[in-house]
Write a structure and sequence with these properties.
alpha+beta, 3 domains, 6-stranded mixed β-sheet, 4-stranded antiparallel β-sheet, 36% strand, membrane, DUF4230 domain-containing protein
Length: 214
């Protein structure tokens, strides 16, 4: 009977190990993916018709009666670096784009080739020399009239382009994080996974930073 239980336990262990090995292999597979995100337009200024002749507002040299803001984000949602990125965000608007600039990033924007350009009245072009996995940068644009939406014609060989109308990133893999938490409490397994699995090493680094910030 004991031998039967031992055999059953070994079989279950082999199955669990096999499933996890397949999961890890899929996680380690190269993934070239760029996610483009855009916010809904936010109204910053509105002048009523009754005072339109009396109140004049100038933004970046342009006189406006209304002002709307949209943010656009590039996110490397894959697991390999992306280079020479040049993404046009085409905005549906009856007005004009007044200005556009970088305003946020989770890495240093010290490369002169990383810029934001305005092309015509409705095109915001975001350029980045490169983005490492999980790196992101955002541009903020101002419009004279309310934008109705945006699109992008960006394509690059070998890169999957995902377009979203929100700034919520990918949902964390809660199951994998829970598994890593359990592994980290076992000294032998902790050492084994740190040696063999890059994702686990990243998890440990992230966890150490969280503990330092607490």
């Amino acid at each position: 009977m004991n031998g039967l239980f031992a055999l059953g336990g070994a079989l279950v262990g082999a199955i669990v190990s096999g499933i996890f090995a397949i999961y890890v292999a899929r996680k380690n597979r190269e993934k070239n993916q760029l996610t483009l995100l855009g916010t809904k337009p936010t109204q910053l200024i509105a002048i009523g018709d009754e005072i339109n002749d009396e109140v004049k507002i100038t933004v970046s040299g342009a006189e406006v009666t209304s002002l709307y803001m949209m943010d656009f984000k590039l996110l490397n949602s894959g697991n390999v670096p992306l280079e020479d990125i040049e993404v046009p965000f085409i905005v549906e608007t009856n007005g004009k784009t007044i200005s556009a600039n970088f305003f946020d990033a989770n890495h240093h924007l010290d490369d002169p080739n990383s810029i934001v350009e305005l092309v015509g009245d409705n095109r915001v072009v975001v350029k980045s020399a490169f983005l490492n996995p999980n790196e992101q940068l955002s541009a903020r644009a101002l419009f004279s009239h309310k934008p109705e939406g945006w699109s992008s014609e960006y394509r690059k060989i070998g890169t999957e382009v995902v377009k979203r109308d929100d700034f919520e990133g990918t949902v964390p893999d809660v199951i994998l994080r829970s598994f890593y938490e359990a592994i980290s409490r076992n000294l032998i397994m902790d050492a084994y996974f740190k040696l063999l699995l890059p994702q686990y090493r990243e998890f440990k680094k992230s966890k150490s930073k969280e503990e330092v910030n607490e």
